[in-house]
TrEMBL record:
Ranges where the Amidohydrolase domain occurs: 230-424
SUPFAM superfamilies named among the record's database cross-references: Composite domain of metallo-dependent hydrolases, Metallo-dependent hydrolases
Entries under NCBIfam families matching the protein: PRK06846.1
One Pfam entry name: Amidohydro_3
Protein name in the entry: Amidohydrolase
């Protein structure tokens, strides 16, 4: 059984699984598994979620059978906990963190983003010395919050060169039985500002999934030049694109529109291109938000939002209404950019529900998709669509009666399985 290594901020939850009920076999049989089976209505309104108990069989990382519960079966007793798809953090930086070391909050920023780049150039050599071990600690934190997959941005720039990527790949290899990831080659210091070009070109030949970027106008001073390079590198190596965009003025809007145009010119990038943060969308008037959301949806360009709070409210509902893929993640967890972050995307779903007034049973149940990267047990009509025989056995068990309660209460994670491997 994989053990959960505790760090100071992780509370150990009572485990469903114990050494004596796990054999060396790759097959698991689980009883008393609570699954959602439909909605209960009153005057055409969803007033509750119906559930029942089932027997689940898992073999070679897949669900091979779902049958009515047998309380007397020789099986692992899940004790009626709710089974949901394991969570996915779709925007995080596993490669650079203070987590696992002594506590420290961020310091006052000087010189904007370029000032932060100068700070990183000083910090990265020291951070790289322990970045593999800290990445593993971060993964263990995510495990404790029910997450077994992440899209991680990883620094590719002249200070780190490819070392940040290589160190993170070691951590991921060490955790491969319990955690999956896709990687974004991220020129945190700009593509041309600090000349990350040769390192990005080399990273593109390695085991990464996306070519990243950050504020092409603010950092590189050239929207078209930077995006043209990024798009061509992605096309040449069959990668996706995921670009940080914090700019909230005219340059931010021009960047969004230019990227949409480039994706439309290169249909191979549809469904593989994302804008992270994209705060400009929160600054547009309602009509412009609708226009850009429609264009993003048509081009199949997704948004990975950290669901910011404060004065800036992103138009996430508008985006979703236009068919835009919306993801969320923790972004930074205690590093030189951000003090906050507890590692829970279920907390992000809860924040989303509060920000956008999603308080009914039905709407709370829909908010779960922020934690699961758009996988829901029930469709909008209440038909069961997950789990199905043949699905990956990547599952989280929560002390909740249904998804709506899980989102509303940020329910406790009891156990986690990744591709048939028991994490804890």
């Amino acid at each position: 059984m994989a053990s959960l290594t505790l760090t100071p901020n992780i509370m150990a939850a009572p485990s469903i699984f114990s050494d004596e009920n796990i054999t060396a076999s790759r097959k698991l049989i689980l009883k008393n598994v609570r699954l959602e089976i439909g909605f209960e209505y009153e005057e055409n309104e969803v007033i509750s979620t119906k559930t029942d108990l089932f027997l689940i069989e898992i073999e070679n990382g897949k669900i091979i059978n779902i049958s009515p519960n047998n309380a007397n079966a020789k099986a692992i007793d899940v004790k009626g906990f709710l089974m949901l798809p394991a969570f996915k953090d779709m925007h995080i930086h596993l490669d650079k963190t203070f987590y696992g070391d002594k506590w420290q909050a961020v310091r006052k920023r000087k010189g904007g983003v370029k000032g932060m780049i100068e700070l990183e150039e000083k910090l990265m050599p020291e951070l790289l010395k322990t970045s593999t071990q800290k990445a593993e600690k971060m993964i263990e934190l995510l495990h404790s919050k029910g997450t077994s997959f992440a899209r991680s941005h990883v620094n590719i720039e002249p200070t780190s060169k490819l070392d940040s990527l290589k160190n993170l790949q070691i951590a991921l290899e060490n955790k491969k039985k319990t955690f999956g990831a896709e990687l974004v080659a991220f020129p945190q210091h700009g593509v041309f500002y600090k000349n990350s070009v040769p390192y990005l070109k080399e990273a593109a030949t390695m085991d990464i999934d996306f070519i990243g970027g950050v504020d092409p106008y603010t950092i590189d001073g050239a929207i078209e030049k930077t995006l043209d390079f990024t798009v061509q590198l992605a096309l040449d190596h069959q990668k996706g694109i995921d670009i940080h965009l914090h700019e909230t003025g005219e340059s931010g809007l021009k960047t969004v529109e230019y990227l949409i145009d480039k994706v439309n010119e290169n249909p191979a990038l549809k469904g593989k291109t994302f804008l992270s943060h994209c705060f400009i969308l929160g600054k547009l008037d309602k009509n412009k938000q609708e226009e850009i959301a429609e264009k993003l949806g048509d081009a199949k360009v997704g948004i990975a939002s950290t669901i910011p709070f404060g004065n800036l409210i992103m138009p996430l509902l508008t985006l979703q209404n236009h068919g835009v893929t919306v993801y969320t993640g923790n972004d930074s967890i205690v590093d030189h950019w951000n003090t906050y972050g507890i590692g829970s995307v279920l907390e992000k779903a809860n924040l989303y529900a509060q920000l956008y007034g999603q308080s009914t049973e039905f709407m709370l149940s829909r908010c779960l998709k922020l934690a699961t990267a758009n996988v829901l047990p029930l469709d909008d009509q209440g038909n069961q669509q997950w789990p199905k025989v043949g699905d990956d056995a990547t599952l989280v068990f929560l002390d909740a009666s249904c998804s709506a309660e899980a989102v509303s209460r940020i329910s406790d994670v009891k156990s986690l399985i990744h591709q048939g491997n028991i994490v804890f």
